[in-house]
Each structure stands twice: as C-alpha cells, then as structure tokens.
Specification:
Blueprint lengths: L1 H4 L2 H4 L5 H10 L7 H112 L2 H18 L6 H27 L3 H13 L3 H37 L9 H26 L4 H30 L2 H6 L3 H6 L10 H24 L5 H12 L3 H5 L1 H14 L14 H34 L4 H29 L18 H11 L3 H47 L4 H6 L19 H8 L1 H13 L9 H30 L28 H27 L3 H28 L6 H20 L6 H11 L5 H7 L6 H10 L7
Helix pairs in contact: 4-5, 5-6, 5-7, 6-7, 6-8, 8-9, 8-10, 9-10, 9-13, 10-13, 10-14, 13-14, 16-17, 16-18, 17-18, 17-20, 18-24, 19-24, 20-23, 20-24, 20-25, 24-25, 24-26, 25-26, 25-27, 27-28, 28-30
Pfam family, one: COG7
Subcellular location: Golgi apparatus membrane
Membrane topology: Peripheral membrane protein
C-alpha cells in the first residue's frame, strides 16, 4: 500500500513499469499468491486512476469558473498602474521645480552662516584683544604675589590671546613683554626646581613641571634635571684619576716596585656598576616624579653623561691599551699613537694592545645589555640613541680596525723565521735545506692560526661590521707571507745547486748552457750521500706546497662560512627583513628608520650599520657575493698559492733532473763516438759492448728514484685517506723525471756530429741500457730513441735497405739524422 500511495515514482522521467511491478511483487506477503497479489494491485491502480481523473475534472471546472473573474482583476490593476504613473510624473515635475529654488535658498543660507562665523570670530578676537590688554596690565601684580602657577596660567592665556589676534602691530610690545616674562618665570622656577630635585620633593617637582609646560619651557626641565644629576656621574668618572694619583704617590713613598698602580681595565667594571645603580635609582624615582617623561628623561641623562666623558674616555682607552706592553707603557702612549705615527720608528701594534681593547669593549657591552634591560620601556629611537652614546668611545678605534689588524698580522708574519738554519758550505747543503723546509712547513699552520685569531678578533670587537676591511687585510697578509715563502724558495735554488740561471723545464733542454756547467762543477764537489739528502729535502718542499694549498683552502671555506653566518645574523636578528629592504629605509643623514626584530636584538653591529649606510652597502655586497660557490674570500692570495705551487714544482723538477743533466751534459762531445779504430795484423776476438758510466749512472739514479719518492707518498697518504691518489702523485713525478732524462738524452744524441762503427756499437749499447731502464719503470720507449737504437745497431751497408723496408716503425727525421752522422748516403 505504501507503494500505491507513493506516486512520485510514476512522475519520474526514467520510470520503468517492469521494475515497478517486480518491486511490487517482492513486497507482497509470503503467504499471498502472485496471481492474487497482481489482481489486487491492478484493481488498486484502476481505482486510484479513476480518483485522479475525477479530481482533475473537478479542479478543471473550478478553474474555468475563476478565469473571467481573474481577467477583470487584471484589467482593473492595469488601469490603476496607469493612474499611478501619471501621479508620479506630476510629483517629479513639482520636485524639479522645487530643486532649483531650494539650491538658491541653501546658497544664501551658507553665505549667512559664513558671515555669522566671521562675526563670532571677530567677537572672540575682540574679547581676546581686550583680555590681552587686561592681562598685560595685571600680570605684574600676579608676579608680585609670588603665585607661580597663577603666573604660568596668566602667561599661557596671554600666549593664547596673542596667537588669536595674530601679527598686529599694536600688540608687538606685549609679545616682547611675554617673552621677557616667560624667561623671568623660568628663572623663578629654577631655584625651586633645583631644590626639589636635590631633595627628592615629588609633588613640588610635578607642580614646577606643569608650570614649565604651561609656558612651553619643558626643555628647561630636561636641561636642569640633566645638569643636576650629571654631577654625581662625572664625580664617579673623575674618581679614577684621584685613586690612581693616590696609589701612585703611595708606591713612590713606599718605594715598592711590586705594587702596581690601579689600571683602567680593572676600574671600569666598578664604574659601570655604580653608574647602573645610580640610573636604576633615578629610573625608580622618575617613575613617580615624571610619570609621563621618565622613559626619555633618564636615557637623556646617560647620553649627556657619555658625551661629557667621551674625550677622556677615548684617551683612557688609548692609555689602557698601552699599559699592557712595556714599550708603550714607558712612553705613556697607546694604540692610537702608534697608528698616528706619534711613536719612535719601529714601534708596532701588538696583539696585547688589541686584546685589551676588546676586553674593554666587552665590559662596555655588558653594561649596554644592562642598560637595554633597564630602559626596555623606552621608545626604540631613544634606546638607539642611548646605546650609540654608550659605545661612542670605541667608534674611533673600530674605524681604524683594519689598520690595527693589518699592523698586528704584518709584524707577526715578519717574526716568522723561515731561514733559521745557518748557511752551510759544500757537504752540508742537505742539512740546511732540510731545516729550512721544516721551518717553512711548520710556519703554515702557525700563519693559519694567526689569521683565524684575526677573524675572531673582528667578530669580538666589531660584531663583524668590519668584515670587508678584515678580508682586505687577510688577503694582503697572505700575499706578504707567500712572498716570504717564494723568496725563501728562490734562495733554496742555490742551496740545491740549481740557481735561477739554470732553470730548464722538462721541454727546454740545451746542449751548452753556462748554468748547467756551473751546476756540474758544483755537484762534482758533492758526495752521492749529500746529493740524495738534497733530493730528499727538495721532495719535502712538495709537502710544503700541498700543506699551503690545503690549509689555505680550508681557511677560505671557514671564512666563507663565517661570512654566511654574519649575513644571516644581520638579516634576521638585527633588521628582521631582507638586507636590501633595510638599506632602503636608512636615511642619507645616517639616522635609521628600521623595524628591528624586537629590542632584544639591538647590539653594536646594528647601530653601526644603521649609522653608516654607505659602509653597510659595501658590507652587504660582500656578504651577498660570499654566497656564490665561485667566490674567493682571498682572491689575490689564492692566485699566489697557485703560483707558489708552480714554483715548487719547477724547483723540485730542477733538483731531480740536475744529476741527469750533469751526467748527460757532454754526451754529444764524447771522443769515443768518432774514435778511429787501431788496425791490427792479427784477428782479435769480438767482445760484448757494455754501457758507459754516464748512462749507467743515469739509469741507476732513475731506478733508485722510486725509493726516494716513497717517503713522499707515505707523507701525503698520512694526511690524505686517498692513498691511491698519493701513490699516483709519486708515480707522476717519477715519470716526469724519466721523461725529462729521456728528452735530455735524445737532445744530446741529436748533437753528435759523427760516429764510427765502433762508436755506433757503443752508443747502441748505451741506448739499449737506457731503454731497459725505462721499460723497468713501465715507461714506453719513445719512437725517436728506438729509431736511434735500430739505426746504430744495424751495419752501415744495411741502413738504406732498412730505411726502405721498415718505414712505418721508424721516425724518418731521426733515421735520416743517424744515416748522416754515420756518413751513409741515402738515395732519394
């Protein structure tokens, strides 16, 4: 039945009769048969259809009856709408006519109102003028009564009346009279204000403050408050001189040299503590005495105090830095005097000078943090001005930081002794070389430590704001140090027997060089043991170059990381936004309009960067560049490190090849090549030809060279976990020397003018020996050398055929040269 009463399904556009019948059959009672259920369902559908038809017919009839009535209503509504439209049109026409007359009326009313306002203003002005005249006449009586609040009120009314009447000539005298009276009242207030401030009379101070405000002289209150409270602070500051003088007289009277006079460094913390305690008391008292002004009044007191003591503060800092070094203490001079040149020639800036300066700056930093906490309720601009004043004595030193650091590092670098060993004569060059190389290698980590200490000093003293100057100083100092290394390296060439005149690279070999002959004479006087000690010492120079390259690279990476930290620190903790945005908010006059990320982030670095926008831009450009992976923090030093490595390689190569060059220097002119064989009547047995001493000496040297390079490989692998790379490094040097020896030998072979058959046989044996040595060293035999060997070992009469038959395996220019020196004519 539920399905029958739900007619929505029949209205569905997707109605399916089969599905509906199946659903109806499924909803039947299990005991009912399908036929009966369908019959009942058909009957119900027919009855409902008849009911719907009857209802539809009834409603249609009723609708037909209502249509005429609705038509009449529509006609009546249409007539009413036409009538209403006509009425509204008439009203609009009347409104338009009324609008024109109303605008004229409103304009007339506005003019009347303006006249009324002017009349009222004139009336009030006349009243003020009359009142001004009356006040001017009675003001003296008010002053005579001694009632200061009433006098202030009278003067305030006079000022108001004068502003109302404007610049009227008749009242010019009264205007001058008013200024005189205000000065007079201020003078009357000042003694009472001084007494009230000195005796802490809160109510009196408040009343006098109101009087000064009424006459527009609040600045007088600030100046008077500052003047009175500045005296105790200046007295605290001057206490150092009195205590120091008293202690000096005591030491003099007792003649006790062990007792030291009070130093500024030990006295300054107590001064800061006393000043802080005084300011805390003033802050607390001013909270009740000046509830509207204490947030700026007490900071103003500290600012004025720091301005007053600033010149002597700077002087005391200078003398304090000088007291830590005997040289400057004896002359009563300091670090500023050294930088200005007001010292004997040779005076230097020591690390102790700068360490004392940093210590004093840190003391001031602790005081500044306490002040920042005490004045935390003050406005940001007031707090900025206060901290500027607190740090102001150090600004002249920070501006000279680059000069100080450069002077310190320069003197420290100059003090490093790279040639501590005594110059020794023949037979002891190896000891001198070893000692010098050891000093060079040990100096590298010392220099890096000095540079790292300079970076720490820059951060500690300037907060990183002088990083750009530090980078320039470090680069110059590294150049100075590497120049010292290079000069030492040049001097070692003479120790090694390879001075500058005999520098011949692997590809530049000559037959007759003055330097070569000189070195040959030198090496003739040196024992084999001394030669090997020189070789070992020269090889150790490679570790110097490797150490310099690696240490300087690591230091540069650390420097870049430091610059990255500074960039983050300045951008986040100081400014709270991007650096470019902050720079755009810095005024040309140096004043800052920055929104810092909370007052807790204020420090000296922030203040300095705000005060010097041009320097800020330079620093930020450096910090931005440091983010580039290709950035070199020490660009000039990096280039010089590479140049030093090249110089070391040249020296080591010249040392390793010098013995070869000496043994091969006269090979082309040996008489054995062109010696004429003595004829004998009897037949002599043929003997095997043995290589000569010059080539066996070279071969033994090359075969022994891997043993000399092995300590170098072990030394590199001890610091480098990549042992294969270290072994490759040593092998590369062995191949380089072997290639150089081969090149020298082939150059000598090309210089031979004539060779006999016996000479060719001997030379062939020499070449074969050297080829065997190269093969033992796993080196390929150059085609030129193999061509020399082939054409020297072949009988003269077979050379033309050999030249024609084995062209692909030969170096033709060399083959023709051998034929020429053997006097064999080749048919073209």
């Amino acid at each position: 039945m539920k399905m029958m009463t739900d007619l929505a399904g029949f209205a569905d556009p997707n109605f399916n009769a089969k599905k509906w019948i199946n659903a109806a059959c499924q909803s039947r009672h299990p005991q009912d048969s399908v036929e009966n259920h369908l019959t009942d369902l058909e009957m119900k559908l027919q009855m409902m259809s008849e009911e719907i038809s009857a209802s539809l017919e009834e409603q249609s009839s009723a609708a037909f009856l209502r249509v005429p009535r609705a038509s009449r209503d529509v006609v009546r509504l249409r007539d009413d709408a036409v009538s209403l439209r006509n009425s509204v049109s008439g009203i609009l026409l009347k409104l338009k006519k009324a609008e024109g007359s109303s605008a004229e009326s409103i304009a007339a009313l506005a003019k009347v109102d303006t006249v009324k306002q002017r009349m009222e203003a004139a009336y009030e002005t006349l009243q003020d003028a009359a009142g001004l005249t009356q006040l001017s006449a009675t003001v003296e009586d008010v002053f005579a009564s001694g009632d200061l609040p009433k006098a202030a009120e009278t003067l305030a009314n006079m000022r108001h009346c004068l502003s109302a009447v404007g610049e009227v000539a008749e009242f010019a005298n009264i205007r001058k009279q008013l200024e005189v009276l205000e000065d007079r009242l201020e003078e009357m207030v000042q003694p009472r204000l001084s007494d009230a401030l000195s005796n802490r009379k809160v109510e009196t101070v408040r009343d006098l403050r109101q009087i000064l405000i009424r006459i527009g002289r609040f600045k007088s209150l600030v100046l008077h408050y500052t003047k009175i409270n500045l005296k105790p602070i200046k007295k605290l500051w001057e206490g150092f001189d009195s205590r120091r003088k008293a202690e000096g007289e005591r030491v003099t009277s007792l003649n006790d040299s062990s007792h030291t006079v009070l130093s500024f460094s030990s006295w300054l913390p107590s001064f800061y503590d006393e000043v802080l305690l005084y300011l805390e008391q003033e802050w607390k008292w001013c909270t009740s005495a000046f509830p509207e002004d204490y947030k700026s009044l007490v900071p103003k007191l500290l600012i004025e105090a720091m301005v007053a003591v600033n010149p002597s503060f700077v002087s005391r800092i200078n003398l304090a830095t000088g007291e830590v070094v005997p040289e400057t203490r004896a002359l009563a001079k300091g670090i500023l005097d050294i930088l200005s040149g007001d010292m004997p020639k040779g005076s230097k800036v020591h690390t102790k000078h700068l360490a004392t300066l940093i210590e004093l700056n840190n003391m001031t930093g602790a005081f500044a943090r306490n002040i920042q906490h005490l004045f935390s309720e003050s406005d940001l601009q007031v707090l900025l001005e206060t901290l500027r004043a607190v740090y102001s004595p150090y600004e002249s030193y920070k501006q000279r930081y680059g000069l100080m650091e450069r002077a310190i590092l320069s003197s420290e670098i100059a003090a490093i002794d790279l040639r501590g060993a005594v110059v020794r004569g023949i037979g002891a060059q190896g000891i001198e070389l070893s000692e010098t190389v050891r000093r060079m290698e040990e100096s590298i980590p010392k220099v890096i430590v000095l540079l790292e200490a300079a970076v720490e000093r820059c951060i500690s003293f300037t907060g990183g704001t002088e990083a750009d100057e530090l980078i320039l100083a470090l680069d110059d100092i590294m150049l100075q140090y590497i120049s010292n290394l290079q000069e030492t390296l040049k001097s070692l060439r003479a120790v090694c027997g390879v001075d500058a005149s005999s520098e011949i690279g692997p590809k530049e070999t000559g037959l007759d060089r003055k330097g070569s002959s000189q070195n040959a004479r030198k090496l003739d006087k040196v024992s084999d043991e001394e030669e090997w000690s020189i070789v070992q010492g020269a090889l150790q120079i490679l570790t110097v170059a490797d150490c310099l390259t690696s240490r300087s690279s690591v230091f540069e990476a650390t420097l870049r990381a430091t610059l990255a930290r500074l960039s983050t620190s300045f951008s986040l903790s100081v400014f709270g936004s991007s650096l470019d945005q902050n720079l755009s908010h810095v005024n040309n006059d140096g004043s800052g309009e920055l929104s810092l990320a909370g007052k807790a982030a204020l420090d000296v670095a922030a203040l300095r960067l705000i005060d010097v926008p041009e320097k800020s831009r330079r620093l930020f450009n450096l910090l931005d560049q440091s983010k580039d992976p290709r950035f070199h923090a020490l660009p000039l030093a990096s280039q010089r490190v590479t140049a030093f490595g090249d110089m070391v390689n040249d020296l080591v190569y010249d040392v390793l090849i010098s013995k070869v060059r000496q043994r091969l220097s006269d090979v082309a002119r040996l008489p054995i090549w062109s010696a004429i064989e003595e004829k004998s009547s009897s037949t002599l047995p043929s003997f095997s030809v043995y290589p000569q001493s010059y080539v066996t000496s070279v071969g033994e040297y090359l075969l022994t060279l891997p043993q000399q390079l092995e300590p170098l490989a072990e030394g590199i692998s001890s610091t480098d976990p990549n042992t294969d790379e270290a072994q490759f490094f040593a092998t590369e040097w062995m191949f380089k020397v072997a290639e150089g020896a081969t090149s020298l030998y082939m150059e000598q072979l090309r210089g031979i003018q004539y060779v006999t058959d016996s000479g060719a046989q001997q030379l062939s044996a020499d070449i074969e020996y050297l080829s065997n040595v190269l093969s033992a060293l796993s080196m390929p035999i150059p085609p030129i050398l193999s061509t020399f060997h082939t054409f020297l070992s072949t009988p003269r009469d077979q050379l033309p055929d050999l030249l024609k038959s084995d062209v692909n395996q030969l170096d033709l220019p060399t083959a023709n040269l051998v034929c020429k020196i053997r006097r064999v004519t080749i048919d073209q």
